[in-house]
Design a protein that fits this description.
The chain is mainly β. It has one domain: Porin, CATH 2.40.160. Helices cover about 5% and strands about 55% of the residues.
């Protein structure tokens, strides 16, 4: 039944004017922002699938994650919640919700006359906008994700060597968003589909300890796969903004240092919306308790950190905004094995 609803939505005809606008894109997982999304953290989070739908952690696990991006310099405030449940050792289902509020949006009056008129005649100049109507933009997001993994072995070229364990995983995400301008006359909504696949080689696997100290991972993800149009309505006029398909490709490498009880990870990613230069990120963790991250994406630096103790963890992520304003996000997670 849900698949039928998705297909019917995708086949809806645009009944009004069409134009190419800026679609609303769902953001990245909080814990991954510290590496610019170029590297999936070794610390499994409930929202990781937002960046890499084909990658997830151990099965038989229940994760609850809450996150916030505090209001800063008049920008948006975001509240996230995610729940992940491993049905058994292979399939996993996740639900994600987000509310984004942007307050104090001014409804400015139209300017009278030309620029020259306003320079020469004070009567054409606008008065102070103390009584301007202040509006608030609200965005509501809901995601439902399903993933599954398959384990196998990859033979080495040298027949005398032991085979390499390999893991394939894939996932699909159904996502919906609804936006409204409180105090104004604007709404927008869209229903779409993401998908991703992942291949992980446990190159340094020890068959005795069943631990790998060197791993290689390749991932491909596609976003806005359904040929839908984002439906918007402003002042009673309905328009349809085309949803451009996107893709991400990434490669990452993990190297463990048992003597130091730490692991170093590095990765690069190429995004269809990013341009010619790939993003990159690094992560270092100590005893799987302290995680430090850094990276660059679209010429913007970012950094992050996580602190884990037993079933609890807290996360901090910083990224430079394209407007030159620093944004930071905080999250916490609890796990039940």
């Amino acid at each position: 039944m849900p698949l039928l609803v998705i297909l019917l939505f995708a086949l809806l005809e645009a009944g009004a004017e069409e134009f190419s606008g800026e679609p609303y894109l769902i953001g990245a997982s909080v814990a991954n922002n510290g590496s610019s999304g170029a590297l999936p953290s070794r610390f499994h989070t409930a929202t990781r699938y937002l960046d890499f739908p084909g990658d997830f952690g151990d099965g038989r696990l229940l994760l609850l994650e809450m996150a916030t991006m505090p209001l800063f310099s008049g920008l948006s405030e975001a509240w996230d919640g995610a729940l992940t449940y491993g049905l058994d050792s292979q399939p996993q289902i996740s639900a994600f919700g987000q509310i984004v509020a942007t307050p104090d949006i001014q409804s400015l009056p139209l300017l009278r006359g030309s620029r020259q008129d306003r320079l020469n005649d004070p009567a054409f100049r606008p008065s102070a906008c103390d009584g301007c109507n202040l509006m608030r933009d609200m965005v509501y997001l809901a995601n439902l994700n399903f993933m599954r993994k398959y384990d196998g072995e990859f033979p080495r070229l040298d027949i005398s060597s032991r085979p390499i364990p390999i893991r394939f995983s894939g996932g699909v995400t159904v996502k919906y968003f609804y936006e409204e301008l409180e105090g104004g006359d604007y709404i927008a909504q869209n229903l779409n589909l993401d998908a991703g696949i992942s291949m992980k080689l446990f190159w340094g696997h020890d068959p005795i300890s069943k631990v790998s100290d060197r791993n290689i991972k390749l991932q491909v993800s596609g976003f806005e796969l359904l040929p839908t149009k984002q439906q918007s309505e402003f002042g009673g006029a309905r328009v349809f903004e085309s949803m451009a398909r996107r893709w991400h490709m990434s490669a990452s490498w993990e190297e463990a240092f048992p003597a130091w009880e730490s692991t170093v990870s590095a990765g690069i990613t190429q995004k269809s919306e990013q341009g010619a230069w790939p993003g990159f990120g690094m992560e270092w963790d100590l005893k799987e308790t302290l995680y430090l991250r850094g990276g660059m994406d679209s010429e913007f630096l970012s950094a992050g950190a996580s602190l884990a103790w037993k079933a609890f963890s807290v996360h901090y992520a910083f990224r430079r905004h394209e407007l030159g304003i620093s944004l930071y996000q905080l999250s916490a997670q609890v796990a039940w094995p």
